[in-house]
Amino acid sequence: MTRLLGRLGGWCARHGWIVLITWVIAAGALMGSSLAFPSPTNSDASIPGTDAQRAHDLMKEGFGPGYAGGGTVQLLLYSADGPLIEDARKRAVERAMDELRTMPHVTKVETPFRAGGISSNLQIGLITIRLEGNDSDKIAQTTQDLSKAADPAREAGLEVVPADSSTPADKEIKTGPSEIIGIVCALLVLVFAFGTLVAATVPIFAALISVASGLGVIGLLGWVVDMPKQAGIMATMIGLGVGIDYALFLLSRHRRLLAEGVPVAESVRRTVASSGGAVVFAGGTVIIALSALLLAGFPLLATLGWVTGISVVAAVLTSVTLVPALLGLLGHRINSLKVPLLRGAGGSHAAGSGWAGLGAWVARRPWRTLIGSVVVLGALAAPALALQLGPLDEGYGTRGSESRRAYELMATGFGPGFNGPLIVVAELPAKVPDADAPIVDDLVREVKAVDGVKYVADPKLNTSGRSVLLQAIPEYAPSDERSAQVVRDVRAISLPGVEVHVGGKVAGLTDAGDRMNERTPLVIGVVVLLSALLLLLAFRAPIVAIKAAVMNLVSLGAAFGALAMTFSIGLGSGLVGMDPPVNSSYVQTIFFSVPIESYVPLMLFAVLFGLSMDYEVFLLTAVRQSYLRHGDNARAVAEGLGSTGRVITSAALIMVAVFVAFIAYPDAMVKTFGVGLAVAIAVDATIIRGFLVPATMVLLGRLNWWCPRWLDRILPNLSVEGHEEDEPPAVRREEPVTAGV
């Protein structure tokens, strides 16, 4: 790998214009094609094999419009000045309903002036609209169009708010402000790190080209595979972060070699031969971690995993081809346009002397450093025991938003359970003539008897007479953990020959949580095992590979602790923009607890494990290179930390800035990702890479690089540390570590 990457880097440096123009054309063509021919999106959050999915499938079989995939839209009406049944208001509502009936795809409009359609104080009403033949991926736009059609009611002084009938997967997270903020913050960090504008712009340019290429590929793939709406934002978040990081690592190595007097072409070749290998393996760990989501049993999550992996592949490719080309074209001008008063990293080892001093300090006190780091990390991870998982309903949305206003009106007028009705679909043992059949009556009676069920609507029979559908309203809000228990209790109903299935948003999220709990150990095990195996191939050191995997799990504990403290305990939920319920007390405002979606921890694990392994690979590569030169383990740790401390810190600051910017999004799920990613990267780059990893490496000594003879014989020599290209033969022969030590 060292020789291959060295030749590739050298060729790109010599043919810089060809490589640069090729990448610009490719990125422009891919991105332009995806924009000119936007592919359809499919945010189907179904989970094959679950009871909610079976209920959803049965709903399509002969129950009529609104059940066969067309969808249902609800409009909340609120009269602040008096009852809705007052003549003038009632006529306005009826005019609005007449207008709604003329809208495309509308097959039925249910009046609010019916049992269950109006609140007890007669001031809140509910118009239910059944649709047929519309695009389910455009339900948000359809809802807005229908809401606009209800303007006659607004003209009469009524408030009309569309209820949010979407699932978390339906929500489109638009890119824009946060990405711009992240790029600006990254540029500032790079300017402070390098001290020159030219050097600072190289990683930004390379990352933008890689993100554009990756998004173009993802957009075109949407024509052949189901592509969720969140694919673009996930690819942008991760692709931007790793793209800048990888280019930053290569650029730091190149400038250090230039400062040592190495010619430009030779410096680029050595940089790609050594640091390029670390980039390839670091990217490989991220891709492995994301690809492991294929085992989660959640198609939407699996797609997000491998789609995000495309952006990582693009980042690796631009790092080992486009970055060397830019370095070759710029030559010594890479240090041009120095910023006054900023020394930056001039490229020498002196720039990292502070980190080298920290490494030496840790080497003299390994046990105290180890114990102190473990205590601090344990304290950060301890709140994770209080992590509260559960559905996240619109009651946690931004105060003043339509979705939250509709949620509050629904809860006030009809009860919190109306925001998450259960769709009960039962398969009958034989055909029945109508919904008044005794077996249907028995089913309705059993559902009503379930503890926590507040209301059961009249049953509806399908055209075959073999399935019956009824809506059950729980007493609790969708985010209340008791709602999930109601789902399980309804499913547990036992009638001879009757198979009871429960669908709807609450049931789907309950099944998602159960599937995540079931598959999480498998996903974690595969990610840890494959990542450790990749490190074993990279460094031929079993203990280092195992230790790296354990360290990454430690950083995850700190991330989940921060999530629990912020959201589950609620100490920081207000700081990240979560709004407590109306009329909350002062204490409730400070400790506003917010549940975390069940699939968020698993996805965070995959992303964070891969990103944390990046820094581990960079640090281990530098330590290994130093160790191969002189064989002094403690000195190698100090030198490795000194040469990578600045670049790892800069890379981490960039990542943290990008992820913190996403906390500003109004969507609660994005906020949880922003908090978890930012905290984990910050902890990983400081406490773990600055103290815990060096301390353990000093204590392990020569065991760090020990490899059994039998394993040494069967492992391919990938030489990721690049010593065969960078060191003279005499030094390599002095390598103190051999198989069997």
Automatic annotation (TrEMBL):
| Keyword entries, A-Z | Cell membrane, Membrane, Transmembrane, Transmembrane helix
Statement: the UniProt record of this protein carries the keyword Cell membrane: yes
Among Pfam families, the record links this protein to: MMPL
State its location(s): Cell membrane
Q: Which PROSITE patterns match?
A: SSD
Topological category with respect to the lipid bilayer: Multi-pass membrane protein
| TM segment ranges | 12-37, 180-198, 205-225, 231-251, 272-298, 304-330, 370-389, 522-541, 553-578, 598-623, 644-665, 677-700
Q: Which Gene3D superfamilies match?
A: Multidrug efflux transporter AcrB transmembrane domain (1.20.1640.10)
| SUPFAM superfamilies named among the record's database cross-references | Multidrug efflux transporter AcrB transmembrane domain
- KW Signal (keyword) present: no
Provide the primary localization.
membrane
Query: Which residue range or ranges hold the SSD domain?
Result: 204-329
Q: Which domain of life is it from?
A: Bacteria
Supply the name of the protein.
MMPL family transporter
Q: Which organism is it from?
A: Nonomuraea composti
